């Protein structure tokens, strides 16, 4: 077991218990934080866009071409990732992400 | 408003669940019209993941999103439903009674009006709308200087146009508007484009010949006055910023789903979903049903197969509204000659 830290759009930081094998998007959604995940994790909508804390970025598998294509549809920072493409493992205990703003 | 279409049922949303409802209604001799905001049928299956495999449709070990839609279209063909695509339902008003419901449904685009006995909302996550980038104060320029679609190219003649995005829409409009714009700038977050190769090539040659500009980065702020855009601040990945002079910005960030006008139809809502019972999938308004991802009830699973089941049960109750005097006989397509006749397969 381990945790992830998620800062919501109001700036509040939440510590959520993580489950191995779950996508970070699914963990955030399961805890009831406002993440849309419209396509259900198929890497087709970019509504689970998060910013990953800098010191965690290179601990993640780099984004696939498919993820990069979806990141083209949002306003990114260099730390942008789709949380449905990050599978949680114990190595990611303490992962720090911030929910990206949405356009409305 | 004198011209209107009279039908038994209007189905809002032509995704897989709306399409299968046509089948279940058709077996009960109920006619329907379907309305969808997209220019094509299939909803999320066709728009978001046409090529993605789906593994949990009963009877299909694997089918793609588009494959499922194509099969559903073939399955409902005998019932000859009418599609109204590229239209969004703007208003839904009740003009009947709870015992004999009647509804007036109006769409926004060319203002079609329908009068029907039941409405089935199969709108998934709502209506597909252009994704709006989260840029401060962008609303102030929408409709005057910021546009999410091109309706008339002439609007952009002699304008300094900034197009944002890296997909087909962004690239197509780049090469189409470049000849008439005063100056065209394309902005994308990286130097890779997901668009037709020949369009990308055309854009690159326009950049090489100095006939347009390509910038890599993101819009971080808009400059302007009184709804009139004067420039956009572009932030690069290294954090540096510069200003691009522009009169018009066209962000092409794809589509997302928004609940839209459904919120204004007097239906009970729970977290943007429509609560229904699990016997008829009827909403708090008799005669209005909600099936598929848009509804909620204890134990709800957002699966396509759940939506199929919900459509079948809703159709039973719709029958009571459409044919109040007729008793409904439950039959199987395997054995009923009358159902087989409707399907055009009777021996």
Protein architecture, described:
The complex is a heterodimer of chains A (about 100) and B (about 350). With about 100 residues, chain A is α+β, with helices and mostly antiparallel strands. The mean pLDDT of chain A is about 95. Chain A has 3 helices and 5 strands, in the order ββαβααββ. The radius of gyration of chain A is 12 Å and the shape is globular. Chain A has one domain: Ubiquitin-like (UB roll) (Roll). With about 350 residues, chain B is an alpha/beta fold. Chain B folds into 2 domains: about 210 residues, FAD/NAD(P)-binding domain; about 120 residues, FAD/NAD(P)-binding domain, CATH 3.50.50. Chain B has 7 helices and 20 strands. The chains are: A alpha+beta (about 100), B alpha/beta (about 350). The interface between A and B is medium-sized, with 23 and 28 residues.
Major protein interface: A-B, 23 and 28 residues
User: Helix amount of chain A, in percent?
Assistant: 10-25%
**Element string of chain B (H = helix, E = strand):** EHEHEEHEEEEEEHEHEEEEEEEEEHH
From the N-terminal CA to the C-terminal CA of chain A, the straight-line distance is 35 Å
Please count the helical segments of chain B.
7
Q: Please, what is the average pLDDT of chain A?
A: 94
Tally of extended strands of chain A?
Answer: 5
Write the layout of secondary structure elements.
The complex is a heterodimer of chains A (104) and B (347).
Chain A: E1 2-7, E2 13-18, H1 24-30, E3 49-52, H2 54-57, H3 65-71, E4 80-82, E5 95-99
Parallel strand pairs in A: 1-5
Antiparallel strand pairs in A: 1-2, 3-4, 3-5
Chain B: E1 5-12, H1 16-27, E2 32-36, H2 43-47, E3 53-54, E4 63-64, H3 65-76, E5 82-85, E6 89-94, E7 103-107, E8 113-121, E9 127-130, E10 160-164, H4 168-177, E11 183-188, H5 197-208, E12 213-216, E13 218-225, E14 228-235, E15 241-245, E16 248-251, E17 255-258, E18 274-275, E19 288-290, E20 295-296, H6 304-322, H7 337-343
Parallel strand pairs in B: 1-2, 1-8, 2-5, 8-19, 10-11, 10-16, 11-12, 18-20
Antiparallel strand pairs in B: 3-4, 6-7, 7-8, 9-17, 13-14, 14-15
């Amino acid at each position: 077991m381990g945790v992830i830290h998620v800062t919501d759009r109001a700036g509040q930081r939440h510590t959520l218990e993580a489950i191995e094998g779950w996508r970070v998007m699914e963990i955030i959604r399961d805890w009831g934080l406002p993440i849309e995940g419209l396509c259900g994790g198929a890497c087709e909508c970019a509504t689970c866009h998060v910013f990953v804390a800098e010191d965690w970025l290179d601990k993640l598998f780099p984004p696939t071409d498919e993820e990069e294509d979806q990141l083209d549809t949002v306003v990114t920072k260099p730390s942008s990732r789709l949380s449905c493409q990050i599978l949680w493992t114990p190595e990611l205990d303490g992962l720090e992400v911030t929910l990206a703003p949405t356009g409305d | 408003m004198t011209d209107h279409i009279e039908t038994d049922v209007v189905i809002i949303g032509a995704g897989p669940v709306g399409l299968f409802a046509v089948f279940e209604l058709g077996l009960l001799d109920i006619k329907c019209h379907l309305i969808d905001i997209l220019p094509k049928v299939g909803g999320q299956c066709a728009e978001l993941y046409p090529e993605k495999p789906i593994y949990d449709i009963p009877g299909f070990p694997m089918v793609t999103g588009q494959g499922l839609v194509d099969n559903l279209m073939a399955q409902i063909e005998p019932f000859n439903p009418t599609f109204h695509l590229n239209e969004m339902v703007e208003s839904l008003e009740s003009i009947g009674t709870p015992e004999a419901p009647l509804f007036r449904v109006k769409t926004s685009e060319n203002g079609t009006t329908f009068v029907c006995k039941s409405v089935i909302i199969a709108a998934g996550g709502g209506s597909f709308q252009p994704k709006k980038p989260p840029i401060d104060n962008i609303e102030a320029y929408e409709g005057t200087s910021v546009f999410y679609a091109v309706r008339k190219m002439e609007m952009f003649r002699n304008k300094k146009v900034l197009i944002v995005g890296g997909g087909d829409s962004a690239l197509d409009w780049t090469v189409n508007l470049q000849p008439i714009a005063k100056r065209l700038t394309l902005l994308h977050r990286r130097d890779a484009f997901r668009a037709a190769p020949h369009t990308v090539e055309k854009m690159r040659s326009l950049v090489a010949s100095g006939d347009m500009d390509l910038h890599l980065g993101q819009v971080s702020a808009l400059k302007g006055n009184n709804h009139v855009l004067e420039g956009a601040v572009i932030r690069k990945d290294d954090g540096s910023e510069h200003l691009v002079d522009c009169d018009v910005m066209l962000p092409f960030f794809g589509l997302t789903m928004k609940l839209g006008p459904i919120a204004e139809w007097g239906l009970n809502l729970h977290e943007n979903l429509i609560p229904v019972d699990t016997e008829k999938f009827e909403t708090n308004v008799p005669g209005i049903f909600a099936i598929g991802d848009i509804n909620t009830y204890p134990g709800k699973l957002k699966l396509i197969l759940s939506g199929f089941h919900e459509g079948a049960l809703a159709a039973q109750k719709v029958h009571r509204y459409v044919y109040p005097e007729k008793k409904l006989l439950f039959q199987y397509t395997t054995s009923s000659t009358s159902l087989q006749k409707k399907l055009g397969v009777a021996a």
